[in-house]
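Problem 12. The chain below contains 455 residues. Write out its predicted structure in token notation.
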Amino acid sequence: MFSAKPAWSDGIYPLGETSDVSRLSDEPIPFQTPDNSDLPKRPGLIWEFGDPFLDTGKLDSGFEIPTGAVWQPRLWLFATLRSAVQTYDDGVAPRASEWVSRLDLFANLQLTGTEKMVFGIRPFDTNRPDRFSGYTFEPTADDGFNDNTNANIRTLFFEGDLGSLFPILDRQGSTPLDFGFSVGRQPLLFQDGIMINDTVDAVGLVRNNVRLPGVSNLRSSLVYGWDELGRSNAQLNDEANMFGFFNSADLKNSSVNLDMVYVYDSRDLGQDSFNIGLSSTQRIGHLNTTFRVNSSIAEGRDTLAAADGTLLSAEISLTPYGSDDVFYVNPFIAIDNYTQVGREPVVGGPLGTLGILFASPSIGNFAAELNPFANEVAGVAIGYQAFWDNHKRNLILEAAGRKNTTGVGNDDLAVGFQFQQRLAQRIQLQLDGHYAFQENRDNGYGARTEILIQF
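Solution.
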């Protein structure tokens, strides 16, 4: 039996909607369908050829190819449109006020449950903060409409499973052929973006469901990337080749990731580098915790592309009893200058995963409220996320700061919020605002309104 009640009935904490839970009901609950309940109907995609996405009913029988695999081709087109009006002042450069839009458009050719080809473009921007289509209000020297439409291919890869693709080689199902693979221009996100957050031309091979003593599941991946690597300075370097070895293990009480990447730069400018990251996620009592250690080692002298450094970070959160709210504390310390393997120009730096005040919205000139890079700095993000109306509305309140550990750089503190409201089945409204107290510079501030539509 569940009964929702307003947050103020029990005081300020928790801030969001609460529920009383007594025990499981003795009354049977009928299977919920759109016909006998308030469940919404399945939202269709822009275009669906073949079996519709997540629909019910009889599946197409498909056809068998010479490898023995049965293909059931389905082509799905879907997109996310974001449009924002925003103003941003970092206390140094002139204030930027603009209306900008971003469209992520994808086509998914699904052949089986494991084999598919994905094609994607971003026709309203060229993957740089100052190259989004829209209108610039200020600075007045740059005001006017901006047309950055293009047909650049941002995503194009094929992925599958060797055992599923070539069942003729193992009719009895006893040969260990279950290796996943992917090849093409694809997003790479490891250590939650702290190690790499980039789209790279790469080929990957993964082995899943490996059993070892004390390990319920081990997944290991080998990745070779030969083009489109952005390096830590987000400058595209087509001469850089990356070799990655990524591992994820589920243990009795925690999930552990050990990831390693070596980057060879054929331009021979001393830009070769090695990155290693170790993380562990678990519950400690009522706390949800993730601890990470990420290090970067540059072959030559430190540069913006690669440098020596170590970033220690933690993500600690708890959920108040009777609610879905989240209270979190995310501290970090960077020893020397930690640099990522690669990142896209619009996503910000390695601290972006630790809080909304370190994260870039990845659209237009609205940058991270606090410097998201990890060079001789320590800091923390403390926040609270509250939910209402069955998660149709949520609010994040956050305070964050960073302190330079050498005594030479600047110390900054910021407060901000992020509010999201579901307007319709496919439409979301988001409001953001922040104010930053900055040492040796004018204080910074920003505000933005965004409409997100999913097709």
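Discussion. Confidence is low (pLDDT under 50) at residues 1-9. Students who got a different answer should revisit the alignment rule from Section 12.3.
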